[in-house]
Design goal:
- This protein is mainly β.
- It contains one helix and five strands.
- The longest helix has 6 residues.
Length: 125
Amino acid sequence: MAVIGERSGTSESTGNQWRRQDFVLEYQEQGAMSYDKVLLTLRDGNIDALALKVGDLLQCAFVNTAHEYNGRWFAGTRLLNATKLAPAVPGVNTEDNNTVMPEPKQPEPAAPAAQKTDTKDDLPF
């Protein structure tokens, strides 16, 4: 999961304060062998209520939605419910809200190739 920076402002029409934060969730449908990703947007109090961090495991239900505004269509994902299953996973940096992958294992160095003793040209192959 990745956490995208929070945005906030004031509604021009009502003067009310608003907050919005986007999350990229990686999910696996029951019985599926691969993972998919979805962009989820939380607003206002839901940001604090869930307090999501990179690496949190969730059980959640969401639906894809679409709406029209001034002749343009917008798509989104609405969270129906969510339950935290486990705390953040080790190997993930939650301080800067970016996913940090565990260090990859370094490959074994290859055995040095046999050097030709013929020096007709200086190409290494």
